[in-house]
């Protein structure tokens, strides 16, 4: 699946907006997507480092129109935690030299709120 097929849309509620300060973003995702698929899609689409993915299957509600009773479809919600302060990593290379790696990750998803 392509990343555009995995992430369907962001979920913007009061509770999800409170999580943005902690680096938690909420998305409606494809029902067949795994946590690994979701993490890769978010990293590719928004250029951020994903730390954790929590998924919830939301059951559909029973709806009624007049005498007809039906049910809305089930869907999947993902809460993605991103790294809010990407830092440089250092390691010792051949010959004892200290090498720094700094990947250019963003610390927030700007497109989430339509900015």
What does this protein structure show overall?
The protein is of the alpha+beta class. It has a single domain, classed as Alpha-Beta Plaits (2-Layer Sandwich), CATH 3.30.70. The protein contains 3 helices and 8 strands; from the N terminus they run αβαβαββββββ. It has helices at residues 3-6, 14-19, 35-46, and strands at residues 7-10, 24-29, 50-58, 62-65, 68-71, 75-82, 89-92, 98-101. Strands 1-2-6-3 form a 4-stranded antiparallel β-sheet. Strands 4-5 form a two-stranded antiparallel sheet. It has a two-stranded antiparallel ribbon with strand order 7-8. A hairpin with a 2-residue loop joins strand 4 (62-65) and strand 5 (68-71). It is elongated, with a radius of gyration of 19 Å. The model has no long low-confidence stretch (mean pLDDT 88).
List keywords for this structure.
single chain; 115 residues; alpha+beta; Alpha-Beta Plaits; four-stranded antiparallel sheet; two-stranded antiparallel ribbon; 8 strands; 19% helix; 37% strand
Helices and strands in order:
Blueprint lengths: L2 H4 E4 L3 H6 L4 E6 L5 H12 L3 E9 L3 E4 L2 E4 L3 E8 L6 E4 L5 E4 L14
Antiparallel strand pairs: 1-2, 2-6, 3-6, 4-5, 7-8
């Amino acid at each position: 699946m392509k990343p555009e097929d995995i992430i369907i849309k962001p979920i913007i509620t009061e509770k999800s907006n409170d999580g943005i300060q902690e680096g938690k973003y909420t998305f409606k995702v494809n029902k067949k997507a795994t946590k690994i698929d979701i993490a890769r899609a978010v990293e590719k689409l928004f250029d951020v480092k994903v730390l954790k993915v929590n998924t919830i299957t939301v059951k559909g509600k029973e709806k009624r129109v007049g005498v007809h009773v039906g049910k809305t479809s089930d869907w999947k919600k993902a809460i993605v935690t991103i790294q809010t302060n990407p830092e440089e990593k250092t390691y010792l290379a051949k010959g004892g030299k200290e090498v720094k790696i700094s990947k250019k990750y963003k610390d927030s998803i700007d497109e989430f709120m339509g900015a």
